[in-house]
Specification:
With 339 residues, the chain is α/β, with parallel strands linked by helices. Helices cover 17% and strands 35% of the residues. It has a 6-stranded antiparallel beta sheet. The protein has a 6-stranded parallel beta sheet with strand order 20-19-18-17-21-22, with helices on both faces.
């Protein structure tokens, strides 16, 4: 039996099957809500259950009203009323599954590989800057990786993969891949994309390979000829972990609208730049974020702390915070970093 899901304070209503998540049903109906991992780990899709009965995976049966409900894990047992962080109308994504060939693999840092994939001749896959794809692994499991290439380069995908010991893809399969090998990928996914209806200055915050979607976003603005102010704060432990630091430095030299601040949490004695937690560097520079938008990508710990302090301390509007938390796709428990 199909249940109706109503969005509080709006006229939006869509149907949801009992075995379907509220997030999936909204997307199928042409609406988009914030999400990232779709595995119940990152909390990006967290919202309120205003009324109704639902099963929330990992939490059990739940009757509204209730806060902190992960909509990617919520399946209806009755008609529901929900209160997502935000919801907008958008055509359902034209996802496609592509057999991609490995074109090149480079290693800009000991624990980071850049994997360049090429799609079959004549195949292009539309996506928005900041979105991600899934790599389908043997056995049907999958891993999510942001596309570091901008949307106009739609004949392939560029992935920044952090090597994790024991990781199914980064630890087991990556070292066996070579030029010409194939990977099954599905794309696009995610809502970590600039709001092009806004002209607010943007704070971009990344840790580790969270730089990948930021690269796509910045290079997309370059291609579009835009001049919206973008300030990237990229955090890492050591200087060598900022594996492509020369690239944003070049952008900052070339474009007046772009600024770059690298931040290290465990620098050596030669480092003369900013230190500490990357989101705290933002707050040191920008004590009032009421006129800004913020896009944070990287570890769940960073994205959660950035949201809490940007909103609670610097006055950022909650609806102007966007995040993409990197978590192991095969994991359904909170973790600290991507795999």
């Amino acid at each position: 039996m199909t249940h109706d899901v109503r969005v509080a304070g709006t006229e939006i209503v869509f149907g949801c099957e009992p075995d379907e998540s509220v997030l999936d049903a909204a997307e199928r109906a042409g609406f988009t809500m914030p999400y990232s991992c779709r595995k119940g780990v990152c909390s990006t899709c967290e919202g309120g259950l205003v009324a109704g009965a639902a099963d929330v995976r990992g939490r059990g049966p739940l009757d509204g009203p209730a806060d902190g409900v992960l909509l990617c894990r919520t399946r209806p047992r009755s008609d529901l009323e929900i209160a997502p962080q935000r919801i907008t109308r958008r055509e359902p994504p034209a996802r496609r599954t592509v057999t991609a060939k490995v074109h090149k693999i480079t290693t800009p840092a000991p624990d980071v590989a850049v994997v360049a994939l090429r799609f079959p001749t004549g195949v292009r896959a539309k996506f928005r800057a900041g979105q991600y794809l899934t790599v389908v692994l043997p056995g049907g499991d999958s891993r999510n990786y942001s596309m570091a290439n901008p949307p106009h380069q739609s004949d392939g995908a560029l992935l920044h993969v952090r090597r994790v010991p024991g990781g199914r893809f980064s630890g087991e399969l990556l070292d066996r891949l070579g030029k010409g090998d194939t990977l099954q990928v599905e794309l696009p996914f995610g809502e970590f994309s600039l709001d092009h209806e806004s002209d607010r200055p943007v704070v971009l915050v990344a840790t580790g390979t969270g730089f990948a979607p930021i690269k796509s976003i910045v290079e997309d603005q370059i291609k579009r000829g835009g001049d919206r102010p973008l300030h990237l704060y990229w955090g890492a432990r050591r200087a060598e972990d900022l594996y492509l630091a020369d690239l944003p430095a070049q952008w900052a030299d070339k474009y007046d609208w772009f600024s770059f601040t690298p931040v290290l949490s465990a620098p050596d004695a030669e480092w003369t730049g900013r230190t500490g937690h990357v989101h705290r560097a933002v707050l040191a520079d920008l004590t009032d974020l009421r006129g800004h938008e913020a896009y944070a990508c990287g570890s769940p710990a960073m994205t959660a702390a950035a949201r809490e302090e940007f909103v609670g301390t610097a006055g950022l509007a909650p609806g102007r915070f966007f995040s993409d938390a990197f978590v192991p796709s095969g994991d359904a428990e909170p973790v600290a970093a991507a795999g």
